[in-house]
Every structure is written in structure tokens, then in C-alpha cells.
What we know:
It is a single chain. This protein is α+β, with helices and mostly antiparallel strands. It has four helices and four strands; from the N terminus they run H-H-E-E-H-E-E-H. The protein has a four-stranded antiparallel beta sheet. The longest helix is centred in the first third of the chain and has 52 residues, at 5-56.
Amino acid sequence: xxxxxxxxxWLAAVITxxxxxxxxxLVTTLSARAYLIExxxxxxxxxxxxxxxxxxxxxxDAVSVELAVAALFDSGYYELIRVTDPRGRTIVExxxxxxxxxxxxxxxxxxxxxxxxxxxxxxxxxxxxxxVTLISHSRFAYRTLWQNVIQLVGVMTLAGLVxxxxxxxxxxxxxxxxxxxx
Length: 182
């Protein structure tokens, strides 16, 4: 069974549109993911440095470190804040429980957002007091990435439907013109 020229052209337009949709979703999603990882890495480094500088302003002790870490951690934007002494023993650690992401689990598994933890040294004068390790929560990045993918798929689907409508109109006119000239 052979397909008419009309159906062949329409099928080619549909396949081309689907490839354009998949390609743009893939490229845009991977690009956005790389950007989010970079921004989280920078945020981790900046916030670890800011906390270390704040703690270094006075003679730090375990109580002041605990209070500063608790105040920062309670903002809810961090997965982990840990302060260790120069020998690597934990002075303070706050870790959030694994929570829900605002994206499907298959999406989170397929596109991991693993930013580099921020680390900075806390000093008391010339003496090193410890090291801050800080990891920002990635759930906000997943939410943003998921919303962007949904919006992109919606826009590309709409563009595909409009393109399909226009291709249908053009092919019908072309077929009518071709039949009339025969």
C-alpha cells in the first residue's frame, strides 16, 4: 500500500516537528541543568565563606558556632551545614531529612543536580578553628528545571500544532492546484 504525496509530506512535517521538539527540550534542559549546578556551586562557596568570615570575626567557640549554624540552617535552603575542627571531628552538623521534590522522581533520577559543596576555613586569629562545609538544597533547582521543561513542552507543542495547521493548509492548496492543472 503506497501513501499519497499529501500524506508523505504531512508525515514528514510531523516527524520534523517532533524531532525539533525533542531536540530543543533536550538541549534547553541540559543547558538549564548545567546553569543551575553552576549557580548552586557558587552559592555553596559564597555562603560557606560568608559563614566562616562571620564566625571568624570573634573568637569562635562551640556555642557561637552552633547558634550561627542553626540560624542559617533554619532558613530552610540548606541540605547540610557542617563545621569540623582541624582534625576533622564534627563540632556542629545540621542535615535536613530527605524531602519531596517538586518534580517527578524519574525526572530527578534522570537529571541529577549535584553541585559541589562549599567549604571555607574558620580562623581565630592565626589559629584555624575549623572548616565549614555547606550544601544548598537542590529541590528548588529541580522545581525550576521541571517548570521550565513543562513550559517549553507546552510552547513547542503549541508551535507544532500551529505549524501542522499551516502545513495542512499549504498542502491542501498545493494538492488542489496540482489537480486543477492536470
